[in-house]
Amino acid sequence: MPRSSSSPSLSTRKSFPDAFVRLVPCLLVVLASKIASAQEGSSTSCMDKGASSCMECLTDENVIGSSTCGWAPGFGCLDSCNIIADISCFEAGNSPDLTRGPDVVCAMADESIADDELCSSKTDCGSCVSTVRANGVDTCHWFGSELGMDASSAHCGPDPCTMLGCGSAVCDAATATEPEDSNDNTVAVEDDIQEASGSAAEPTVPAENTLSEANSGLASPSAPSSLETTGRLLMAATWCLQLLLVLVA
């Protein structure tokens, strides 16, 4: 009676490796999805983490792609500076020099805040454009009549151009503050001095009259002095004495 064999058939031995190979891609897909889900569950966006400072916004390692976070003074930590316009926003990842770290970028942010406060405190064109910003080189810009603004909407800002247009670094004749006329003040002071002294200024003698008087003085002879008169009398007496001696002789 023939015995049944318990060993697997040849077809069974060949089908097992093929099925395992087919399962490997599926296992890899499942593993990748599990890893992605774990990362998403343990991380938050830049806006959700509630950063209260520039350094905290740009250096949080628990945020996916934290190098793209943007710090906007007055608005907080943003997922990117691309989602907001016309305000100052700072990113470590998008800096012109990729070697700039959060410390350098945040120092620039502090400087920008100081410039905003300094320039916005100026209320006229003259004081605005003469104010030097924190870098010691650039000045504030005045946004006024050149943009169609009246006195109530004109303002001073640190940036040369905004969404409203470009400001000016110089003042035109209409907005420049002119100094007070000092001629009237000088005349008033002179009048006060004359009144206090109780005497008016002597009139100026014309030069022509002075020259005429000098010429007339040179033309008319001066009166003889007493010495000249005595000399003449002595000469007359001597002449008379000589005449008398001649007659006596």
Helix content: 40-55%
Number of strands: 7
Sheet with most strands: strand arrangement: 2-1-3
Runs in which pLDDT lies below 50 for 5 or more consecutive residues are 178-189, 214-223
Structural class: mainly alpha
Shape: rod-shaped
Largest sheet: 3 strands, antiparallel
Could you walk me through the main structural features you see in this protein, from its secondary elements to its overall organization?
Among the domains are: 37-117, no CATH class; 121-173, no CATH class. Mean pLDDT is 69; it is low at 178-189 and 214-223. The strands form 3 sheets. It has a 3-stranded antiparallel beta sheet. A two-stranded antiparallel sheet has the order 4-5. Strands 6-7 form a two-stranded antiparallel sheet. It is rod-shaped and about 190 Å long. It has 7 helices and 7 strands, in the order H-H-E-E-E-H-H-E-E-E-E-H-H-H. Helix content is 45%, strand content 7%. By secondary structure, it is mainly alpha-helical. Strand 6 (161-162) and strand 7 form a beta hairpin. It starts with 9 loop residues before the first helix and ends with a helix. It has helices spanning 10-42, 54-58, 102-120, 125-129, 183-197, 207-219, 226-248; strands at residues 70-72, 76-78, 90-91, 141-143, 155-157, 161-162, 165-166.
